[in-house]
Amino acid sequence: MRRVVITGMGMLTPVGNDVKSTWENLLQVKTGINRITAFDVSNHSVKIAGEVKDFHPETKYDPKTLKRLDRFVHFALAATDEAIADSGIDLEQHDRSRIGVIYGCGIGGLRVWEGEHIKFQKQGPSRVSPLLIPMMIPDMTAGYIAIHWHLGGPNYSTVSACASGAHAIGDAFRMIRYGDADAMITGGSEAPLTPFALAGFSNMRALSRRNDEPHRASRPFDRDRDGFVMAEGAGTIVLEELEFAKKRSAKIYAEIVGYGATGDGYHMTAPAPGGEGARRAMARAIEEAGIKPQDIGYINAHGTSTDLNDKYEIKAIVDLFGDNARKLMVNSTKSMIGHMLGAAGAIESGVMIKSLQSGLFHPTMNLDNVDPECQGVDHIIGEIRERTVDYAISNSLGFGGHNASLCMKRYTE
Predict the structure, then answer these.
(1) Does domain 4-247 have CATH number 3.40.47.10?
(2) pLDDT tens digit sequence for 25-50
(3) Which CDD domains match (predicted)?
């Protein structure tokens, strides 16, 4: 079976507009969560989010083209630009029909949808933009990335709520592993910060209401957590078949060795009791990697800061890893950047890759008092951990019962 490695990364997050700044700020335990500035929140019960800051795509891309694309595609384009440049791949030198794009997005063009619906109500059907549909559909991430770089390999978008980005990476991994492509551009993007979406998530009581102390609002696994914090951004990684990468002397960050995808078949929003679906996803990723649970040294958890997700994810880890769970390092990147929904799995996979490569693991911010129902693992609290880890897992768990686990390995020849 063909081996698959990571050769490039790009990030756009509430704590940085590239990989370098995002990673440095995570290691410094800085939060990107604050009061929303994109629109008036005076009538909203939730007033905080993780916004991307100082993002000006019109300085790099054709403004006319950008007007035909929603913000979530702008994010995907910028993260992919960085990832391709970082990989050093010269697309002119390769068969572009062997390079594909699988990209995740949980919701799509909410901003354009809201704007056009208001126009529809006030001015009638004839005033709705003919670009509404292509601007709002989630698959335009994968579609436009392929159009922009003229890539003819496998191309589609994964839409599985908060697991979208992880599913995209897993599917792209399989495309290369099974010989359908030599390289894949993959990841996830989301731009959900709109008045309508904020109201929807807030009214289902999913969001934290710590409006007066936004920097303390996202607190995965903490006894006093009260919901997740919405966020926006994108993450892209470049996957290549190992020999394809070595032939062009590419730098290699890490190797992806296993992927587990399962369904809860239980509830629209609540995870299956005990995290049974998440446990099976992790077990499948480990099995495909050809290793044992005790070989895993670190898990970048889904860790949303919600009651059921946090305790059931930890329960799933403890059930799967047994006595070894107490030695297993666990953190949640969402504690500093919030929950990027369909982009979360892509960003968190990138963080896991950086940790495997550097041996540095950021703490979970605001984990002041571990919930008794979230104990049983080695939570990274307070300070950076420095340790050599050979295998790690990133979990992504979405509304609808979608579970995805990605197993990666520190790269060695």
Answers:
(1) yes
(2) 999 999 999 999 999 999 999 999 99
(3) KAS_I_II
